[in-house]
Every structure is written in structure tokens, then in C-alpha cells.
Amino acid sequence: MSQLDIVGTLYNHAAAPHPDERIALAESEGPFILADAKDAPRWLGLDYGGRWKTWVLGPLASLPMIPWPKFDRFHRHKHEAEGAYVALRGAIETCMVGAPIIEKPGAGESPEARYAGVYPQESDGEANPIGFLMMDECNDYDFAVHMTKGMACLRGGNYDGPRMVSYRPPPAACTVATKKGINDRIDHIVLVFHPGPDDQREFIRDGLRGAGPDGNHVDVKIDCMSGVIVAFWSRLSGRDMLGHYDDPAMGLCNDGLVKAGGAMAIPSGSRASRPARPGRARGRSS
């Protein structure tokens, strides 16, 4: 890759822990989200948005004698999550006759959550549990953390929102750089994750010379109908960032991120009178 121009640095972790334990845990890591500016407001971050999760935790989940029902761990509706919870509990009761299953009210995030400890067979429920069965409300951040192992496209079965690209790096600095093409127009935006905020800037500025592609990389694509792509930390609410605007420029500039000093706009180099052309954004994990 040719010479890059460094724009600035993004982080996917907080500098100091938040006093609220739930928020502090979310701030310790998290995927980045890349989305069209018209779709980003539908990302709810840490706000609960009507998605539920059901799963089994601990050694219990890997016991070979239990034929676990096959279904998605994420559900759009509470009744679907309850049905999955009942099916999982039934599988335990059928294959582990006599194993105490003790419900633990109030253990989840939601008041309607169900959480149960599963204990060894013929025990009185006072031994160490061999696993947990849970059903709880889930937010978009939880979904991104559990579904994103590398670079992924959030769409389809377990995500009913607009198509977005997610990438889960370790807690690290992310240098934002651009590459100019014909007529000095920016034709690439590059996000480079690295352990230090400054020690690799010259390497990045020099175009990452010598870097090789990841053999397991995945290309993912999203629609960019507004002509504006937004990259942000998944714990943030796109709705709070950009508001409810039909024109993404209003959310970005008039009353939104750029005016508030919480974001930086990277112009493409085209004239203001020239309308943005719909296109596609492509990402590659490396």
C-alpha cells in the first residue's frame, strides 16, 4: 500500500473504570461497528432493544450425554426465549434424573430474567454447581461481543437490524489513516489496531510495508446508500449519537457528533455541490 495520511486515534476501552460495574465491564473491551450513517441510529449499544438470549454455561454445556436442542441463542421475542429455556431445562431433567435445578430470582439484568444453577445428581443443591441455565434480556452490545470473533457482518438469523460490519480487536489503540487516489481524492480509509498509540505511526504512515494478509481473512460488504460511513465503538448508541434525522448530515454536523467535538469528519475530496454516489464499503480482517 502507498503512503498513508494519519488522521487520529480511536480506542475501544476507557481510560478509567466507570463506577457502575455493568458499564465498567462493557468499557473493558468491545467490537467496533462500521455502518452507513442512515443505518447507524438503529444500533442501540447498551440500551435494551427487545432481544433475548438463552444459553447454558459451565461444564454442563459440554456433557456428551445431553442432546441439546438446536436453536439460536438470541431471540427477537421473550416467548421464543422462554420456549428455548424450557426445552433446555427439559433436556437436563431427562438426561440427568435427580440433578437439582435451583432457580435464582433476580440474578439477571432484566426483572423478567430466569437463571438456574444445575447441581450434581443426588446432591442436595449445596455442592458446587456443574453449570447454569439462563434466559435474559440482551442489548446490541452483548450481541456484538458474543457474535463477533474477528471481522463479521451483523445480519440475518440472529440480528434483524440493518447490515453492519463488526470487528473485535483486543483492547488497543486504533490509528485511523487515509490513502489518496486519483486527483488527490481519498479512496481508502484504513483502521489499524496496534498495542501502542504512537510507536508504530511511522510504519503505518509508510503504508504498512512488509505486512502480509491474514490467511483466514474474510471480506464483508455493506450497502452505503447515504454516501457516509460511520465507524464507532459498539457500546455507544447510534441513536444517541446521530438522532432521528432523515438526512445523515444533520445528525453528523448540525446537532450531532462533529459539532459536539465527539467525532472527526474525513472528507472524500469531492465538491460539496456533487451528490454522494451510493456504493459499497468493504472491510478485510488482518
Overview of the structural elements:
With 286 residues, the protein is of the alpha+beta class. The protein has two domains: 5-46 and 143-284, no CATH class; 48-139, no CATH class. It contains seven helices and 14 strands. The protein has helices spanning 21-27, 78-95, 140-147, 201-205, 238-242, 248-254, 257-260; strands at 5-11, 32-36, 48-57, 74-75, 101-103, 114-118, 131-139, 151-154, 164-167, 173-180, 186-194, 219-224, 229-233, 279-284. The protein has a five-stranded antiparallel β-sheet with strand order 4-3-7-6-5. A four-stranded antiparallel β-sheet has the order 8-9-2-13, with no helix packed on it. Strands 1-10-11 form a three-stranded antiparallel β-sheet. The radius of gyration is 23 Å and the shape is elongated. It starts with a strand and ends with a strand. Residues 269-286 have low confidence and may be disordered.
